[in-house]
């Protein structure tokens, strides 16, 4: 029974890993954009 649970969990993580990577990349881009926009607004 435990083996089945472990397999299910590992499969779930393997299938959702690309999504997690994509999400973190999106957040990083958003933060970078916010920083750049903040700097531009301060200059104006």
Automatic annotation (TrEMBL):
This is Uncharacterized protein.
């Amino acid at each position: 029974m435990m083996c089945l649970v472990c397999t299910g969990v590992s499969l779930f993580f393997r299938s959702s890993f690309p999504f997690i990577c994509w999400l973190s990349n999106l957040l990083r881009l958003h933060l970078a954009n916010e920083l750049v926009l903040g700097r531009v607004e301060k200059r104006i």
